[in-house]
Write the structure tokens for this entry.
Amino acid sequence: MRKKVAFLINPFKRIQLQSYVDWVKSCVDFSLIIFDQEWPKRLNDFDEVWVIGGDGTFNYFVNKYPNCDKPIALFKGGTGNDFYWKLYGNLTREMHLTTIIDSHVESFDAGQVNEMLFLNGVGIGIEGEVLSAIDAIRWLGGALGYYLAAIPALIRFKTYHIQGGREVFLCMIFNSARAGGGFHFFPMADLQDSQLDMLICDPLPVYKRLFYMPIIQSGGHLNLPFVHFSKISSEQIRCDRVLRAQVDGEVLESDTFDFKILPAKFKFIVPTKL
């Protein structure tokens, strides 16, 4: 039977992505059904699901289809593309499509915070403030746009207290390795270890916040004395005020964040391990 694939496209970027989608269509010899405006209600009739967009698009996908059991292929089409990078690295467009057509499937973890699923990670507080500010400069994309949004937030942001009265500057819980178009917050992250990675940063003066920003971007913060890492399967973070959190490029506001790992939640088509 001929393979049938649903190709889901971020409708807000369908014009920018049109030439990429046309190229993909020209390279396959099976049934590729394009959804570039309204996505299907169900995926039961398809053998695979291909999704093109950025981290926000992928977050929308897993929350719209939380019980998807079809093999999923991701195509790069966003500003940060951080989760895509974790799965596919820096493959050329041609090598990436070859990988997808070869259809090697593995199961990968996801996370959940309150009622939202996430693939990449959650930053409570300053990450939410950065995301709220970045829309105005999103056209720059990637790390540069993140920098320009982050610097004012780094200067203004006030620390907060979590359960037990602990004062923190930064609290992040991730499934994957990076965010913000290349900030390697968790270079040790493993998508198949059935655990989430938590980072808590002690309060810092403004000059240290600015000084350590490029160090954190490169992943060189693992042994800094004011940065604390741990592995968790579930955790509740209670804050002393309502905060914005960044969840895979979406904003969640709350004073309580309940996390849990969802082991082997989704099946992705990925390169074969050497």
About this structure: The first strand starts at residue 4 and ends at 9.
